[in-house]
Amino acid sequence: MSAADASGHALITGASSGIGAELAREYARRGRAVVLTARRVERLEALAGELRRQVDCQVIPADLEDPAAPAMLAGTLRQRGIEVGILVNNAGYGVPGVYTASDWQRHARFLQIMVTAVCELSHRLLPAMQARGHGGILNVASLAGLVPGSAGQTLYAAAKSFMVKFSQSLALENADKGVQACALCPGFTYSEFHDVTGTREKMSKLPKWMWMQAADVARQGIDALEAGKVVYVPGRANRSIKAITDLLPDAVALRSMARRSKQIRQQ
Q1: Could you report the per-residue pLDDT of 174-210, keeping only the tens digit for each?
Q2: Rounded CA gap, 224 and 231, in Å?
Q3: Suppose 187 and one of 44, 238, 245, 256 were both cysteines; which one would form an S-S bond, judging by CB atoms 3.0 to 4.6 Å apart?
Q4: Per-residue confidence (pLDDT) for residue 39, from 0 to 100
Q5: Are 93 and 197 in contact, with CB atoms under 8 Å apart?
Q6: Which superfamily does 9-266 belong to?
Q7: Active-site positions?
Q8: How many Cβ atoms sit within 10 Å of the Cβ of residue 130?
Q9: Region for 7 from its dihedrals, namely left if φ exceeds 0, alpha if ψ lies in -120 to 50, beta otherwise
Q10: Would the pLDDT of 24 be above 70?
């Protein structure tokens, strides 16, 4: 399945910046129409103005922290007569600090956007893909979901690990239905993520070899989905980190993560 030979728009959540915006640009470059959704309307409209020179580009503002947002999105798509051929679950952020430093409502909003909305959008849009016999779901997870959890941002790695397992199950269930599923697991990526979480100053001290450009992550992620890969880690450095972690005994890997978490907090 390539972007050019399969029908339907690519619906991209969290499309106003970072990896989401670059995924939209990459799909447009490949000739696939796109639907952009995020909270920041001005950013979406600016990106849409750029992409409409290449493909049809629809904008549906939504805040996926709102439990009603997935149903609203699906309803608006139906009203506009838009078929979704690719769903990209990209929206998300991290909650800095240790678990009890934030109140439960903040964590609940995080889980709504990072877990519940991902599941609901997939559940609402998957049946039509199955009926057409083609489609794809690209879940933007993280290398954090494949290595031991860290101290701080307690639910982030857990949510990303969920996305990995969810993608694997979807891929198995739809192998004979023409619908592909892939968990894209980037490591540190130049985007607004660390500005939102307030960790930009700390993260800027990490070695440059650990970082990737959002456009490269987007291109490799789409390639992985189209190639039928179920879990994909972009970048040789990130793949090396995962390989080393996989070889270490769990207790050793966890101690290593504990030291790294402490170093980042001290920095």
Answers
A1: 999 999 999 999 998 876 554 444 444 555 555 565 6
A2: 8
A3: 238
A4: 96
A5: yes
A6: NAD(P)-binding Rossmann-like Domain (3.40.50.720)
A7: 156
A8: 14
A9: beta
A10: yes
